[in-house]
């Protein structure tokens, strides 16, 4: 029977190889193997570079034997053979105990694979797997020039076994070109000058030059981007066909009351996005929109106005925050703004208004039951809670709009769960202050429409940031505390943020960190809130009113302290990153971040957004042990130098090595993305998005492209669909 892309590998390869490939590399069909691309290519004359490998890494190198030395072992019986292999100036040591390899002769070429070990500080391979080229092959000039593919390998499937298996398929009888059906529409391929699939596969597995590799990879990336974008376009189309409930604007209601009560003028951006939302809410297709805007750009009021419109139209609106502190703050703020209109049914409430209900896990049983009843029976028009609200099976009388605040990991699955609430899916608005690079918006959030608030409300003082390098300029640290004292003396307040809570503290509030600082283990433990609090209170900030805020406090305690800070009963709040998102105290003007190098770029930007939310200028001081010329030091300098969130988001992607969010998420995933990079392939992804949208908009859709349809279906049913959850 003819071999096709769907043929199981067990039918074309040896049983043992096929089994190992399936178990260890997740490769089951011809298609899987052909899409298992080389990690890199080796060429004779290139250096064996062991500088980059870590002990414990599994690596494959192409090298020549330099010396072979066998001697009896000193303390034990038997022999030890040490072989030095190398190429160019690079070299490495292989050791074998009680084993001789007749073919391991000086000048022989081979590939060596193993797990990097260490002996007396020197990296080495013990008993590596080897594939020695015979001398005929060795003298073959073709081979000497060729690029040797190095594949992601596993314990029992070495790179050269994969290479041999692939070669077998590429040379398959009947012609390789016939084995491979190119799913990509011919005209699309022509339009973008892409290789055919058989040609691309041949070149990625058996290239002669790096140009071959590049052209092949370009075409194969197109496959990935196209299928991804077709999937997302299909989701958008399906969503557009879903029946929802129109919530048109009505005058004389809550929305007008909100507008009348606002203590400020809306910015132009807030007005424009507001119109966009108002229009979409009055359609009977559910809105699916992402609102992104710099920290402090005023997203909350935009959301509140949308919620008011829905309440005016007879529905309920839920606002979900990532933490209880934030949920409580939102509820408090909305109640204040609405006044009697937010207390319908209470003694001093306005019967024309609605009820604002806070529903969080920390409510006492009775209060909780009452709140749930208010929600289920429709008395609560505005429901504020944490994301858990959705999982806890809270019933709504008529949920019209869900606003998800400050959640940049709110993936497709959660959004789907949301849409399943109620008899008809509600409108959904996701808000984030983490600026989303364009590629992420086109992929992870690719099924949402995007609105952006670019402008900050006028009259903001702005934040200036500085790095305080403790070891290089110790005097600056004293100056930092002095600045805090000055601000407090002028009637302002300050945050001091630390990476950890206290002594034995677990990981609950730990920063995302892991910017890949090399010798993490040798560093002192990160500074802790409780220690810093004691130090400051006894020393540099003695006499000021200090308190702490962190994740180990009960929700009530947190709420009490946030409130005390908001009402200026506390001058300085020493906290973990619980203040990271959304906390809004306009009178706070200084933020001192301790061990700033332990925080991610976006996180620092978020933190800094907590100050200068009022009319006074803000100051953010990034205290660190990192030397200013170290990568961490430079990263901090970059954060201090710009307030452009989009630029920082990009820097974050780079430094956290998540440029391949998609790629990293799919490892082990058979239908996912392998070559596409969010950082490097922005144009390609954008173009594929346009092509995908147009393809689906045609009358026959994918009907004439069964290959593509099959790949889209495979991706859609991939129950893990994890690549869409990562951002
Ligand atoms: P974010 O977009 O980070 O969630 P918020 O919605 O918390 O920002 O708004 C930040 C602060 O700006 C709040 O104190 C809010 O009341 C205030 N604010 C919002 N819009 C305006 C405006 N148009 N003019 C002045 N202040 C505003
Ligand atoms: Mg906010």
Question: Can you walk through the features of this model?
Answer:
- The protein is an alpha/beta fold and 727 residues long.
- The chain is 37% helix and 18% strand.
- It has 26 helices and 22 strands.
- The strands form 4 sheets. Strands 6-7-4-3-2-5-8 form a 7-stranded mixed sheet, with no helix packed on it. A 7-stranded parallel sheet has the order 12-13-11-14-15-10-16, with helices on both faces.
- α10 (254-261) runs antiparallel to α12, α11 (268-281) packs parallel to α12 (299-312) and α13 packs across α20.
- The protein is globular.
- The model is unreliable at 510-521, 657-671 and 719-727 (pLDDT under 50).
- Bound molecules: adenosine-5'-diphosphate and magnesium ion.
- Residues 299-300, 405-406, 582 line the site of magnesium ion.
- The site of magnesium ion (MG) has 5 residues, from α12.
Quote the beta fraction. 15-25%
Radius of gyration: 30 Å
Ligand identities: adenosine-5'-diphosphate, magnesium ion
How is the main sheet built? 7 strands, mixed
Give the termini separation. Answer: 44 Å
**What's the total helix number?**
26
Question: What is the topological layout?
Answer:
Blueprint: H1 15-25, H2 30-34, E1 40-42, E2 58-72, E3 79-87, E4 90-97, E5 109-115, E6 117-119, E7 122-126, E8 129-132, H3 135-139, H4 141-145, E9 148-150, H5 159-170, H6 176-179, H7 186-191, H8 197-205, H9 210-241, H10 254-261, H11 268-281, E10 288-293, H12 299-312, E11 316-321, H13 324-338, E12 355-359, H14 365-376, E13 380-386, H15 388-391, E14 399-404, H16 412-419, E15 427-432, H17 438-443, E16 449-453, E17 463-469, H18 474-489, E18 493-497, H19 529-538, E19 546-549, H20 555-566, E20 572-575, E21 588-593, H21 601-608, E22 618-624, H22 631-641, H23 645-655, H24 661-666, H25 682-697, H26 706-717
Helix pairs in contact: 8-9, 9-25, 9-26, 10-12, 11-12, 13-20
Adenosine-5'-diphosphate (ADP) is lined by residues 264-267, 270, 293, 295-301, 433, 457, 582, 584, 586, 613.
């Amino acid at each position: 029977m003819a071999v096709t892309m769907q043929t199981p590998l067990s039918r074309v390869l040896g049983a043992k190889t096929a089994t190992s490939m399936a178990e260890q590399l997740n490769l089951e069909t011809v298609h899987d193997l052909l899409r298992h691309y080389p990690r890199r290519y080796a060429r004779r004359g290139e250096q064996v570079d062991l500088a980059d490998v870590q002990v414990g890494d599994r690596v494959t190198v192409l090298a020549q034997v330099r010396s072979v030395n066998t001697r009896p072992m000193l303390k034990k019986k038997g022999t030890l053979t040490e072989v030095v292999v190398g190429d160019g100036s690079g070299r490495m040591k292989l050791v074998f105990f009680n084993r001789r390899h007749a073919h391991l002769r000086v000048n022989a070429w081979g590939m060596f694979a193993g797990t990097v070990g260490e002996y007396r500080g020197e990296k080495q391979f013990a008993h590596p797997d080897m594939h020695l080229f015979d001398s005929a092959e060795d003298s073959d000039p073709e081979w000497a020039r060729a690029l040797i593919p190095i594949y992601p390998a596993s314990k029992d499937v070495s790179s050269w076994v994969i290479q041999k298996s692939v070669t077998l398929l590429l040379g398959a009888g009947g012609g390789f070109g016939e084995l491979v059906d190119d799913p990509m529409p011919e005209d699309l391929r022509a339009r973008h000058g892409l290789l055919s699939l058989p040609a691309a596969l041949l070149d990625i597995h058996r290239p002669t030059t790096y140009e071959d590799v590049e052209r092949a990879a370009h075409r194969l990336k197109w496959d990935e981007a196209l299928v991804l974008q077709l999937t997302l376009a299909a989701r958008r189309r399906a969503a557009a066909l879903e029946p929802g409930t129109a919530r048109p604007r009505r005058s004389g209601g809550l929305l007008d009351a909100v507008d009348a009560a606002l203590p400020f003028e809306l910015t132009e951006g807030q007005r424009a996005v507001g119109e966009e939302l108002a229009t979409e809410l009055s359609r009977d297709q559910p809105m699916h929109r992402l609102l992104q805007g710099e920290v402090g750009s005023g997203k909350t009021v935009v959301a509140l106005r949308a919620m008011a419109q829905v309440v005016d139209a007879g529905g309920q609106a839920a606002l979900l925050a990532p933490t209880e502190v934030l949920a409580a703050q939102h509820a408090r703020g909305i109640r204040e703004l609405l006044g009697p209109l937010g207390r319908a049914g209470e003694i001093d409430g306005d019967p024309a208004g609605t009820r604002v209900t806070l529903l969080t896990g920390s409510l006492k049983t009775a209060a909780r039951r009452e709140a749930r009843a208010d929600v289920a029976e429709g008395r609560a028009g505005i429901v504020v809670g944490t994301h858990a609200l959705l999982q806890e099976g809270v019933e709504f009388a008529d949920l019209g709009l869900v606003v998800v605040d400050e959640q940049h990991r709110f993936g497709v699955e959660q959004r789907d769960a949301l849409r399943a609430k109620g008899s008809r899916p509600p409108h959904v608005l996701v808000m984030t202050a983490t600026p989303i690079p364009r590629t992420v918006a086109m992929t992870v959030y690719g099924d949402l429409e995007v609105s952006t608030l670019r402008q900050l409300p006028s009259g903001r003082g702005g934040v200036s940031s500085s790095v305080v390098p403790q070891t290089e300029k110790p005097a600056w640290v004293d100056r930092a505390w002095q600045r805090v004292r000055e601000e407090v003396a002028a009637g302002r307040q300050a945050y001091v943020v630390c990476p950890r809570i206290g002594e034995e503290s677990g990981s609950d509030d730990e920063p995302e960190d892991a910017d890949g600082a090399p010798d993490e283990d040798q560093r002192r433990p990160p500074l802790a809130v409780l220690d810093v609090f004691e130090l400051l209170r006894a020393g540099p900030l003695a006499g000021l009113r200090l308190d702490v805020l962190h994740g180990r406090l009960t929700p009530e305690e947190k709420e009490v302290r946030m409130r005390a800070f908001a009402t200026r009963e506390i001058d300085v709040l020493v906290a973990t990153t619980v203040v990271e998102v959304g906390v809004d105290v306009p009178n706070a003007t200084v933020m001192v971040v301790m061990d700033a190098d332990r925080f991610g770029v976006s996180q620092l930007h978020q933190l800094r957004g907590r100050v200068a939310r009022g009319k006074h200028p803000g100051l953010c001081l990034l205290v660190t042990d990192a030397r200013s010329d170290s990568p961490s030091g430079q990263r901090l300098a970059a954060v201090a130098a710009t307030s452009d969130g989009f630029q920082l988001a990009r820097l974050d992607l780079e430094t956290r090595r998540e440029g391949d969010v998609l790629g990293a998420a799919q490892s082990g995933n058979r239908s996912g993305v392998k070559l596409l990079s969010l950082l490097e392939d922005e144009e390609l992804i954008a173009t594929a998005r346009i092509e995908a949208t147009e393809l689906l908009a045609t009358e026959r859709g994918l009907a004439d492209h069964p290959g593509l349809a099959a790949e889209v279906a495979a991706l859609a049913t991939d129950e893990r669909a994890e690549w869409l959850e990562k951002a």
